[in-house]
């Protein structure tokens, strides 16, 4: 099965009204690509970005997080209804920074995936191992555990509407990156794990690689049969660098 590539830029907690205007305008110069191109601004700038890309069909809007609750007394949280108000399509769930810095457990991540799906949003489920876990040869165990927690709550069929992003924690923001073959090996194992429950779902699900993705390394990465795109961090804040990654995917 040919799966469409996705290149998603996670801007994290970066930007100002001026810098985001400049970044988005740079991205609007994108030439046509067969890849789906997703931008993930911080919450305060969702409206600003949504207004600009409403006229530009080449960019798709995502949010960096969501609440597992529908509404109510949850100060500082953002609900799915608020996200859909801004025509958000995707939402990152379970990013390693949310897991490690804010204590999001596998169970919380699963509830957030369920909430996103119930609102018609497509979760980008982030999974991946720490350096200690990789050195202990637990990479696949960790990835399988993180995926299984979600399957337990939403079922395997729901993964037809879920994107998986494999992000080895040791490679995020460190400049280190898994080799194309290392990424392929893990992606293949994730897909095989899903196939044990449903082959059709496993063939359909898009699995992105994240972790210090750069234009210079992305071309080889995208030749791998089980790598369906990238979740890009720091490099997505540079319009030219990010568009070079999009070009490599397309």
Description of the molecule:
The protein is α/β, with parallel strands linked by helices and 250 residues long. The protein has a single domain, classed as TIM Barrel. The chain is 42% helix and 15% strand. The protein is built from 11 helices and 8 strands. It has an 8-stranded parallel β-barrel, surrounded by 5 helices. Helix 2 (46-53) links the parallel strand 2 and strand 3. Helix 5 packs across helix 7 (139-154). The chain is globular. It starts with 5 loop residues before the first strand and ends with a helix. The mean pLDDT is 95. Its EC number is 5.3.1.1. It is found in: Cytoplasm. InterPro entries: Aldolase_TIM, TIM_sf, TrioseP_Isoase_bac/euk, Triosephosphate_isomerase, Triosephosphate_isomerase_AS.
């Amino acid at each position: 099965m040919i799966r469409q590539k996705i290149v998603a830029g996670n801007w994290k907690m970066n930007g100002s009204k001026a810098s985001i205007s400049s970044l988005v305008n740079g991205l609007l110069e994108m030439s046509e690509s067969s890849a789906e191109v997703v931008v993930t601004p911080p919450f305060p700038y969702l409206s600003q970005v949504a207004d600009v890309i409403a006229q530009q069909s080449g960019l798709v809007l995502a949010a960096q997080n969501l609440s597992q609750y529908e509404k109510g007394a949850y100060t500082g949280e953002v609900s799915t209804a608020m996200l859909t108000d801004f025509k958000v399509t995707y939402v990152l769930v379970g990013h390693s920074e949310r897991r490690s810095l804010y204590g999001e457990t596998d169970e919380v991540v699963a509830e957030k995936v369920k909430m996103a799906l119930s609102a018609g949003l497509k979760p980008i489920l982030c999974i991946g191992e720490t350096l200690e876990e990789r050195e202990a040869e637990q990479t696949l165990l960790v990835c399988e555990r993180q995926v299984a927690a979600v399957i337990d709550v939403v079922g395997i069929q729901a993964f037809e509407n879920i994107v998986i992003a494999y992000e080895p924690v040791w490679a995020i923001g460190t400049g280190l990156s898994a080799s194309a073959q290392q990424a392929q090996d893990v992606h293949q194992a994730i897909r095989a794990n899903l196939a044990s429950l449903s082959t059709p779902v496993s063939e359909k699900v898009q699995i992105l690689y994240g972790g210090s993705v750069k234009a210079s390394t992305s071309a080889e990465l995208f030749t791998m049969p089980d790598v369906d795109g990238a979740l890009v961090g720091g490099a997505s804040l540079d319009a030219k660098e990010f568009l070079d990654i999009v070009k490599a995917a397309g």
